[in-house]
Amino acid sequence: MTDSTAEFFQELGGRGHEPLLEKATGIVRFDLVDGKRTERWLVTLDRGDVSVSRKNAAADCIVRADRTLFDAMARGDVDGMAAYLRGELTLEGDPELLVLIQRVLPGPVTRGAPHRGSAGGSDRR
Amino acid sequence: MSDDLVKILDGNTFVVSDGRGDIEASLTDPTGLFSFDTRFLSKWVLTVDGQRLNPLSVDDLHYFETRFFLVPGTGTVYVDAKLSVIRQRAVGDGFREQLTILNHEDKPVDLTVRVEAASDFADLFEVKDALEKKGKYSSRIEGGKLLLAYERQTFTRSTAISASAPARLDKNGLTFKVRLEAHGKWTTEIEVSAQGGQSAETHKRRRENMEGNLERWVRGAPRLECDWEPLRITYRRSLVDLAALRYSPPITPGKSLPAAGLPWFMTMFGRDSVFTSLQALPFTPELAATTLRVLGLWQGTRVDDFRDEDPGRILHEMRYGEMTAFEERPHSPYYGCADATALYVVLLDEYERWTGDRKLVRELEPEARAALNWIDEYADLIGNGYVSYRRRNEKTGLENQCWKDSWDSISYRDGRLPGFPRATCELQGYAYDAKVRGARLAREIWKDSTFAAELEKQAAELKRRFNRDFWVEKDEYFALALDADGNQVDALSSNNGHLLWSGIVDKSKAKAVARHLMGPRLFTGWGVRTLAEGEGRFNPIGYHVGTIWPFDNSFIAWGLRRYGFKQEAAQIAAGILNAAAFFDGRLPEAFGGYQREATRYPVQYPTACSPQAWSTGAPLLFLRTMLGLEPVGDHLVVDPALPSGIGALALLEIPGRWGRVDAFARGEIDLNRRSELQPQLGAAEQVSARRR
């Protein structure tokens, strides 16, 4: 089984600069709960420059969720905002950062909008 | 029914009760305490010695506060006036109710005061569609509070009720044993708090704040002086209602943008927020700035069929209730809207022209470019170069993604409905305007002349094709839409006015379009109907097929003005402002499209919601249009064309890139001289005189 959470964060960190996150400056910490263990991912955003680490540090926004839930989000199977409204995912700090993070989470597998150049299937602008 | 209901609100928390302050909701009845799309109280009934109370009067103190004067006993002519009961209620994160009882007798009395409380925690969608709940209810006493709760997996909502005076709490309410001395007074404050979701954390404004805030808001807007009193009343009402409709989304606390309307639409809507911000721009430009920022933050980035989301698309509607949380509805947010994306660019340009805030335009460059990209890459579903719509979420998505969103709004002259996709005409106008304005922003602010030239070329090309393909040659107006085969959906509609506003209409065709808008099939004397009399589906009280929408008319008048039809614009302004006087200055969403001579007063549409943001904004836009306010460079040009009945008018301290300037005008357009029309404005003076 692939580890979609780790893949997502590693890929995000590898982007270096992400235009969709240019509005964001701050540190978002993901506390992902897996039984008794809490796995932490620290995402540092500076006007679109993204870096990812596993440090446990103070953050502007802390996202708490079950590891399995976040795995599903990272695969595009679960919508982060709906999970937040359900109370499955909780937030501490600046909630705007979650809206921005959602921009880089994959969307659901879809038959897709009939748009020009849809053959490539890029789902990001 | 809804006329008797009392509504107070703050942001998206609101209370709807009957005239004595009681709430007795059923699944289909929209009374209750609502917050973030959930009903937190469905029962709230006050009795004294087991008796219901009888209302003497209701005072609306502020939009967020009201006072009920009550006496015991109902249903009889005789009213027992030995006791008075005063309920004063203010909305906050829930509401606070001060309950006062006065004894008018010269001997003591012992009373049992009871408040029955319950909640069904219905999602607004459930209230509208009468659906069943899936979670568990509970009720308990804890820490001196009555807690009503609802739980479905991790989704929890609760209502906490407590009182300042000693009370016996049980699972169904609060009981007070009260001894009142001769001519004595008893009082308690009951606090009802809506908890769960994000409401409690982000919704902590207090009343003192709210009063100061409202005063500052009204003081910050331009001051209107005017001989015609109903316009002063309407203006004041618009500013106060707009303050009430300001809404701070829980995800972006502290920033407010206009929500769409009470009670169903206290949330962020792309289209409504943009139109209202455009209307209010000369008065309260900060609403536009927030609308642009927040809608930009939520701009679509993915392809998601359930939410009808595409990259660059501006959202249609956001909801926070249970059904959205469990993805039984797609509103987290839902993107099925074909106009808001182009209108977003229109607002960004208009905002800069008024305020000179180049910083925001630079900040939102990626969002504006993505919106312009959406028009070309995702909105042309037919492949003919026009914006069209067809939902991908066929279960819970919206069928009609233009502002006339009811099932029968888009029809051929003979009443047939076209299939999908549908390319309605105003969408092409908005797309044209977005390209023209986008080009200006690209050239002047983003310093990208290549992109600017490309957009200008596309706009000119779109205009040329549009004037060929949508023009109904025989009768000289623009068809309502093109169907999927490219045939004209040929009904005559008010959408022609939006086309004038967008600038897509060839100069040579404008006169014929204006003639239709002001002709007897569309213009009633009060305003322009959504659909012309004589069309197959015309019905003067059909939601989008014959009623008059003040918002629609405000943009039609702006469009007429744009093409130089000053007198016609003034005439529409006069008709709608005249109608406003019949509604005490608060324009409804829509009113009946009957000829003015036939009814003499505007007939309110049966289920229209009120106050509604873009109706509230309409008088503001009419003021702009009548005064001919137009930013040119760093100056504000004033070129008034007012109906004579308005008399002298001054709009003082209009904010903008020029600082603050005043505009003065005198009504000189004599509408009454045109023999085919009823006297305008004069009639409303009589109305207000009668009411005094």
Q: Main sheet of chain A: which strands, in order across?
A: 3-2-1-4-5
Total tally of structural domains of chain A = 1
Sheet with the most strands, sense and barrel status of chain B: 8 strands, antiparallel
Strand content of chain B: 15-25%
* Average of the residue pLDDT scores of chain A: 85
What is the number of beta strands of chain B? 29
Q: Gyration radius of chain A, to the nearest Å?
A: 15 Å
Mean model confidence by pLDDT of chain B: 90
Number of strands of chain A: 5
H/E element order of chain A = HEEEEHHEH
Main beta-sheet strand count, sense and barrel state of chain A: 5 strands, mixed
* Main interface by residue count: A-B, 32 and 40 residues
Overall shape of chain A: it is globular
Fraction of helical residues of chain B: 25-40%
How large, in whole angstroms, is the Cα Rg of chain B?
26 Å
| Biggest sheet strand line-up of chain B | 7-8-9-10-17-14-13-12
Number of helices of chain A: 4
The number of distinct structural domains of chain B comes to 2
CATH superfamily of chain A: SCP2 sterol-binding domain
Q: Count every helix of chain B, treating DSSP H or I runs of 4 or more residues as helices.
A: 19
Residue runs with pLDDT of under 50 for 5 or more positions of chain B: 199-208, 673-679, 683-692
Present the secondary structure layout:
The complex is a heterodimer of chains A (125) and B (692).
Chain A: H1 4-14, E1 25-34, E2 37-46, E3 49-53, E4 61-66, H2 67-75, H3 80-86, E5 90-93, H4 96-104
Parallel strand pairs in A: 1-4
Antiparallel strand pairs in A: 1-2, 2-3, 4-5
Helix pairs in contact in A: 1-2
Chain B: E1 6-10, E2 13-17, E3 23-24, E4 32-35, E5 38-41, E6 43-48, E7 53-62, E8 65-72, E9 83-92, E10 94-103, E11 109-118, H1 124-129, E12 136-142, E13 145-152, E14 155-163, E15 168-170, E16 173-180, E17 185-195, H2 199-202, H3 207-220, E18 223-226, H4 229-245, E19 246-247, E20 257-258, H5 270-280, H6 286-297, H7 322-325, H8 340-355, H9 358-363, H10 365-377, E21 423-424, H11 425-444, H12 449-469, E22 471-472, E23 477-478, E24 481-482, E25 488-489, H13 495-502, H14 507-518, H15 550-562, H16 566-582, H17 596-599, H18 613-627, E26 630-632, E27 635-637, E28 648-656, E29 659-666, H19 682-691
Antiparallel strand pairs in B: 1-2, 2-4, 3-6, 4-5, 6-11, 7-8, 8-9, 9-10, 10-17, 11-16, 12-13, 13-14, 14-17, 15-16, 18-28, 19-20, 21-24, 22-23, 24-25, 26-27, 28-29
Helix pairs in contact in B: 4-16, 4-18, 5-6, 5-8, 5-18, 6-8, 8-10, 8-11, 10-11, 11-12, 11-13, 13-15, 15-16, 15-18, 16-18, 16-19
